[in-house]
């Protein structure tokens, strides 16, 4: 197994996992390689036991069935969920080929040129965050928007740390209710920081009038109400990119603007914008 690990390094990725013999169970991967993966699960498996999985990821990977063999299990501990390490058996070359293709697709999606427009997505639910990020990367492909990059943080504190580092973030999309540092506290810090005070901020939340009033006072650019449809998220980002280029139009229907005049500086902050077809020469930033 150690030789195989060296030949096929694993990398972290959250894919959904279902089982043909337990359709109601939904688990997630922790990492994968071209020959195996680790699954976070409460199910009990014995070493050498075989089972058939169906792995998928919205907007990135269609469901793929894989027969795997359990290598070892890991008990849950504080801060570390339990699960099982599995590999595709040597006597199933077609399933090995399918897992290798899954790995190729994922690596290709992860390999992108240095972005010129960076979106920071802050969401404490890892699966939701991955799906949002996939929808935004899909937008880059469908609209042929070059230079669009998506980064993900799972709490407000880590997002704040990222916002203070280079390279700079061009758009913040954040949830409200998160551990360590809430979305409201994060936006409050952003607006109090001179280098970030005009950063466009989109808030995704199921929060009530109190949170919305507080965030409106802090100068949030747009609101999206949960549950958010992926096309609505893409439309919102598309609108803000065009606004940054000086092509300001009405926000998409799903995006609610605060009851005030939009701050043009929050729509055009920054020096560069990604290239959007039909706009060969972006308007200069204000």
Question: Brief description of this entry?
Answer:
This protein is α/β, with parallel strands linked by helices and 286 residues long. It has helices at residues 2-7, 93-110, 126-142, 156-163, 183-192, 209-217, 230-244, 264-268; strands at residues 11-12, 16-19, 22-32, 36-40, 50-57, 61-74, 83-87, 117-122, 148-153, 171-174, 201-205, 222-225, 255-256. The chain folds into two domains: 2-109, predicted glycosyltransferase like domains (Thrombin, subunit H, Beta Barrel); 112-268, Response regulator (Rossmann fold, 3-Layer(aba) Sandwich).
Description of the molecule:
The chain has 286 residues and is of the alpha/beta class. The protein folds into two domains: 2-109, predicted glycosyltransferase like domains (Thrombin, subunit H, Beta Barrel); 112-268, Response regulator (Rossmann fold). It is built from eight helices and 13 strands. The protein has helices at 2-7, 93-110, 126-142, 156-163, 183-192, 209-217, 230-244, 264-268, and strands at residues 11-12, 16-19, 22-32, 36-40, 50-57, 61-74, 83-87, 117-122, 148-153, 171-174, 201-205, 222-225, 255-256. A six-stranded antiparallel barrel has the order 2-3-4-7-6-5. Strand 6 and strand 7 form a beta hairpin. Helix 3 (126-142) crosses helix 7 (230-244) and helix 4 (156-163) runs parallel beside helix 5. The longest helix has 18 residues, at 93-110. The chain starts with a helix and ends in an 18-residue tail after the last helix. The model is unreliable at 1-6, 262-271 and 278-286 (pLDDT under 50).
């Amino acid at each position: 197994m150690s030789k195989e690990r060296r030949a096929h390094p694993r990398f972290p990725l959250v894919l959904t996992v279902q089982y043909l013999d337990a359709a109601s169970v939904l688990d997630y991967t922790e990492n994968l390689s071209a020959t195996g993966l680790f699954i976070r699960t409460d199910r009990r498996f014995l070493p050498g036991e075989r089972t058939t999985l169906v792995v998928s990821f919205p907007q990135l990977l269609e469901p793929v069935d894989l027969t795997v063999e359990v290598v070892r299990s890991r008990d849950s501990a504080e801060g570390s969920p339990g699960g099982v390490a599995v590999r595709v058996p040597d006597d199933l070359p077609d399933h090995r080929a399918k897992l290798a293709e899954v790995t190729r697709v994922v690596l290709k999606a992860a390999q992108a040129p240095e972005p010129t427009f960076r979106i920071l997505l802050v969401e404490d639910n890892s699966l939701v965050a991955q799906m949002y990020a996939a929808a935004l990367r899909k937008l880059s492909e469908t609209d042929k928007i070059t230079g669009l990059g998506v980064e993900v943080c799972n709490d407000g504190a880590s997002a704040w740390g990222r916002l203070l580092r280079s390279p700079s973030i061009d758009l913040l999309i954040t949830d409200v209710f998160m551990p360590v540092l809430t979305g409201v506290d994060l936006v409050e810090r952003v607006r109090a920081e001179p280098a970030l005070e005009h950063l466009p901020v989109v808030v995704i939340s199921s929060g009530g009038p109190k949170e919305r009033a507080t965030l409106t006072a802090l100068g949030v650019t747009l609101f999206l109400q949960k549950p958010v449809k992926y096309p609505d998220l893409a439309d919102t980002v598309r609108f803000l990119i065009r606004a940054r280029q000086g092509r300001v139009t009405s926000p998409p229907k799903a995006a609610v603007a605060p009851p005030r005049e939009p701050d043009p500086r929050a729509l055009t902050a920054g020096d560069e914008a990604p290239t959007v077809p039909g706009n060969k020469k972006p308007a200069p930033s204000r």
